[in-house]
User: What shape does this take?
Amino acid sequence: MNNVHTFLRSLPAAQQPDWESHTEFTRVEEELSAAPELVDAADVDALHAHLAEAAAGHVQIVQAGDCAEDWAECNEGDVARKAGLLDVLAGLMRMTSHKPVLRVGRLAGQYGKPRSRPTESVRGMELPVYRGHMVNSPEPHLRARTPDPTRMLTGYRAARDVLTMLGWGGGARRARPGTEVWTSHEALLLDYELPMLRTLPDGRRLLTSTHWPWIGERTRQTDGAHVAMLAQVANPVACKVGPGMTRDELLDLCEALDPGRTPGRLTLIARMGADTVGERLPALVAAVRTAGHPVIWLTDPMHGNTVSGPEGLKTRLVRTVVREVVEFHRAVTDGGGVAGGMHLETTPDQVTECVADHDRIHEVGDKYTSLCDPRLNPRQAMTVASAWLG
Assistant: This one.
């Protein structure tokens, strides 16, 4: 273990599985450390250059995909359908913004999930909560829900295969420039991410698990391991910004993640809620602008608008999601920032996890296959993308 890993492991780290006592943990860590990089520096640098254009207002971004990826969908057909939906959404955004649109998938690594509670009650049994395929299984029994570090190796192989299907395999980009699907995921599981943190010949450190990692609302502490890890890397990085974020917290985060005030380095993903974004966001945008950070602002209109449907199933109302998209654009403009695009949870499947409005809430659950939070189906996602003002 090198000095950087030792330092990062000494810091507080939220939302981590308790599996270090597992007999296979050391072997898994060694195998991941020896495994080939999933992305290379040239491609990450190319994305960074595109994001610098977005920070200048010349390019828009659609970042979308599953809440939690399913290994069963690690095949050519499903990956192509997810990429195809990104293509459609990018086309709609391009029509309204008249600007090029970067396609970024929640793909090839969105296998870990932060959760609000460590356990849940299922049919009268208290079980560890499902934390994504890289940690445990969603099946409702104790053995399936027990964290298993060997799943990180399966996750690595699944991510490698998806990257290959997207045209990134073997370090040779096959996609035509301008049509690439870049990969992103929440850099949550330190026992997976740290072995993928590699030092380049030029001395930079690259997180080779994905092109574009982000930090979630639950792991954004400036004294924590997640922020410290992404502060080290050459990748462009992103961070979620919730309604509880204060001005000082946000400026501390920006200073930690973007000390050089470099265009394209830092993206802030606002997940405020439709009723809050117009009130809370303009002042935060203005503060970041005044501090000199050339950030890209994205809207995540999903996580702040989750409500309960029939039988307690989580859902989101498309009308409310659209309202947050519109209010976000106005808020960022009022604050003098750059509204760069959208971060959505979507699926190419015809699910009924989200519904149009309260009048249709009885439809939730007719087809509900998400491993975690509710996703927009293609028609709903197109409705939201069409609301983007550009």
